[in-house]
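The following record pairs a protein chain with its ligand, adenosine-5'-triphosphate.
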Amino acid sequence: MSEQTPLIRAENLTCVFDVSKPWLNRVIERRERQFLTAARNVTFDIPKGKTFALVGESGSGKSTIGKMAVGLLRPTSGKVTVDGTDLFGALKASSASALRRRIQMIFQSPYASLNPRWRVGDIIAEPIRAFDLASGDAVGARVTELLEQVGLAENDGQKYPHEFSGGQRQRIAIARALASNPEFIVCDEPTSALDVSVQSQVLNLMKDLQRDLGLTYLFISHDLSVVRYMADQIGVLYLGQLVETANREDLFNNPQHPYTRMLMDAAPRIDAFGRTADAVKGEIPDPITPPPGCPFHPRCPLVDNRCKTEVPKPFQTGETNVACHAAEEGRGRPEAA
Ligand SMILES: Nc1ncnc2c1ncn2[C@@H]1O[C@H](COP(=O)(O)OP(=O)(O)OP(=O)(O)O)[C@@H](O)[C@H]1O
Ligand code: SF4
Ligand SMILES: [Mg+2]
């Protein structure tokens, strides 16, 4: 854990959705109410200017955590603090606008987040006006500056979103996110919909902007190679729980959790030419009725009886935090096998 005071702190973030059928159906079908825990006791810190990445399969709770981190979704329990201020407490107060300005989110599909009927210049100017950051001619000048900052030209501000490619539209979404001078940006699969070559250009742009503007990122991706490129610290999510949190080097050089190792075996590797990648084995369980004990146990190659009944508690080994009985007992490491 960094000695620096974190800009963002997520503490025991838990989100439970009520996914019950309507009342009448429940009565007729004699069904109980049903709840889905999309995030459970998720805890992490992000120091200023750093990137924390969340990685996990579809449905593991990445977007749910991202939305809680920007204040779009209220946690069922737990809290998010920004520079020591409780995000949800502050969002009720008169200082809410000041805090909202400091936090932005970029989504996977920029087309869905950009109003198709507005010119790009107006899309980018909107937060500048909403937060009263400039007026008159200064708004246009700031829009031009932002367009250039993301690699677009001044006259692109006159066009509509449909006139741009996917990569350019994501640049527009980034410019809009930057318009309020944020410090913290949640990036939810920002390049997953883009071709690989365009993807790396946008990732490079995001890294450059982070360096130049001192931005702090929560970076969400299902793609380990993207996470490896972007992150300082990485949290591996499984069924809404962080099963391993480590810095980039430790995670990739010495993964502790069997699920992390399974994800890595399934990821295409530049240094593994000719080697067939193993698929991620097994199905993700139904999150409404998760397995008892360790939620990963039905898929785990190291499962034993303890795993089937006892939930593993996170423990610290070096700078890595991991929740696994086998890791704690020191059994089943690949080199020991
Ligand atoms: N509003 C909601 N109501 C009920 N269940 C929800 C809601 N939003 C998400 N979920 C459920 O919560 C779990 C986590 O969803 P989430 O979208 O956070 O996963 P994700 O890791 O972002 O997945 P993906 O990689 O597909 O985007 C899933 O089981 C999902 O079906
Ligand atoms: S606790 Fe057991 S089942 Fe869960 S990941 Fe560790 S070894 Fe596998
Ligand atoms: Mg998602």
